Amino acid sequence: MKYPLLKTELPGPRASELISIDHEFVSPSYTRVYDLVVEKAKGVWVHDVDGNIFLDFTAGIAVCATGH
What we know:
Blueprint: H1 13-25, E1 38-42, E2 45-48, E3 53-55
Antiparallel strand pairs: 1-2, 2-3
């Protein structure tokens, strides 16, 4: 893999369904900055439940990037 791949609008249909369930049952004090439902990750690649593939940019200054 050399580049990200988007197969659906974001969030995708499966992710939207799971996010709705999350909003129903999880406390709103547990916030999320973005609507991403991760299915798997390896190295710098993150795959969501709808088959979209993202480049992981979550590491930053003073953060130890040890993987997922």
